Amino acid sequence: MSIRRLLLAFAVATPLALATACSGDGDDGEGALTAEKIVERLAEHLGEEEFGEPQENTASCSNEAAGGDPQDSDCAQLIVTDQVAVYEFGTTELSRDWVNRYARVDEEDWRQVGRFALAWTTPEQLTVDEARRTEITGLVTEWTTEPAPS
């Protein structure tokens, strides 16, 4: 292998490795934290039967996932359960924008946790009491602030 190829490989691999190692998303050793992983952890902590069957619904918040052109405001992932909808965004700012935009709609309850948004918007979710919503928000906050493993 030539020195030029070796340097190119190193130049490409190093930033990628650093970005992965420094993600800061409360990684559980199986990759970066995602909406799907949050829902899995919530079901484990709160009881799967009571939590409801998770539904992948990203196409409702992502033009790209729905088959269109990507938009700056697209979500990365949306998982919906009977108790909460977990939205994942690429940035904290985008999460905040969604929460600020939709938190004012009727009885809906939206809460930002880093680059994630938790929402109670469906009839089933709106029956979830404040104590349970606070518990869910607290767990997600804890998981998103866990230090990345060394």
Order of helices and strands: HHHEEEHEEHH
Query: What fraction strand?
Result: 5-15%
Strand order across the biggest sheet?
1-2-3-5-4
Largest sheet: 5 strands, antiparallel
Report the mean per-residue pLDDT as an integer.
81
| Overall form | globular
Total strand count, please?
Answer: 5
N-to-C terminal Cα separation, in Å?
A: 32 Å
What are the low-pLDDT stretches, counting only 5+ consecutive residues below 50? 1-30
Please tell me how large the radius of gyration is. Answer: 18 Å
Task: Provide a brief overview of the structure.
44% of the residues lie in helices and 13% in strands.
Task: Describe this entry's structure for a reader.
- With 150 residues, the protein is α+β, with helices and mostly antiparallel strands.
- The radius of gyration is 18 Å and the shape is globular.
- The chain is built from six helices and five strands; from the N terminus they run αααβββαββαα.
Structure keywords:
five-stranded antiparallel β-sheet, 13% strand, alpha+beta, globular, 6 helices, single chain, 150 residues, disordered N terminus, 5 strands
Question: What is the element layout, followed by pairings?
Answer:
Blueprint (H helix, E strand, L loop, with lengths): L2 H19 L13 H12 L1 H4 L3 E2 L20 E4 L4 E4 L3 H11 L6 E5 L2 E5 L2 H4 L3 H16 L5
Antiparallel strand pairs: 1-2, 2-3, 3-5, 4-5
